[in-house]
């Protein structure tokens, strides 16, 4: 059976992001075998509180991915990690479906300091709506807040560039919402990945994208064409 990995976003987990919204079942019904696990520092199993231990999240992910993947579906941070792996080893993970990513790909996480302060109980004022939404998303995963803060504070956080994305060889679907305050495709990402298929929908914010059936349907249709 064709294996498809599911990589959640920052603060999430496989269970809270994908299983809860029926992705595993939908993939199996379409003839795929879902492969799911939590990014380092995420999920109820916990992890290190030392940011240095998260310096290469993409490398940690690569060590756990099967070698015979047909494709992978990522959301938010998961899309960044998949593109980082694609730049390192073009085509190694098959067809890629990337949700909740845009021109923010080319910059460090903008909400990082505010999220870290909130996670460590050091925020001086109520969080902005974008930060509050990410915190709510993180609570659903049962992750340790200190682990999540360490992930945001990790050193050597790689920033992808157009030159590195020029190595991309695999078919890609980029799926976003116009209501997403975190990620919009705009022009830079589209120019960097001219061969990718882009889909933009109305009505869903950033953290709600994995629960939108339009994203799920588009992902399954894209993978089924391979």
From TrEMBL:
Keywords: Hydrolase. GO terms for molecular function: hydrolase activity. It comes from the Bacteria. Gene3D superfamilies: alpha/beta hydrolase. InterPro entries: AB_hydrolase_fold. This is Alpha/beta fold hydrolase.
């Amino acid at each position: 059976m064709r294996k498809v990995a599911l990589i959640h976003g920052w603060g999430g987990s496989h269970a809270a992001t994908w299983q809860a919204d029926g992705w595993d079942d939908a993939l199996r019904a379409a003839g795929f075998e879902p492969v799911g696990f939590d990014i380092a520092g995420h999920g109820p199993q916990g992890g290190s509180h030392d940011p240095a231990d998260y310096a290469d999240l993409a490398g940690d992910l690569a060590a756990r991915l099967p070698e015979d993947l047909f494709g992978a579906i990522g959301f938010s941070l998961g899309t960044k990690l998949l593109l980082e792996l694609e730049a390192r080893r073009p085509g190694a993970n098959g067809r890629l479906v990337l949700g909740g990513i845009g021109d923010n790909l080319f910059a460090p996480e903008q909400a990082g300091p505010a999220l870290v302060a909130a996670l460590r109980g050091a925020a001086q004022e109520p969080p902005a709506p974008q930060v509050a939404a990410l915190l709510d998303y993180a609570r659903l995963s049962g992750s340790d807040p200190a682990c999540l803060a360490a992930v945001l504070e990790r050193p050597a956080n790689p920033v992808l560039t157009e030159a590195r994305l020029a190595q991309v060889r695999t078919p890609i679907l980029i799926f976003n919402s116009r209501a997403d305050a975190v990620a919009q495709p705009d022009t830079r990402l589209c120019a960097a990945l001219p061969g990718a298929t882009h889909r933009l929908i109305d009505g869903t914010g950033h953290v709600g994208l994995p629960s939108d059936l339009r994203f799920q349907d588009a992902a399954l249709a894209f993978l089924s064409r391979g």
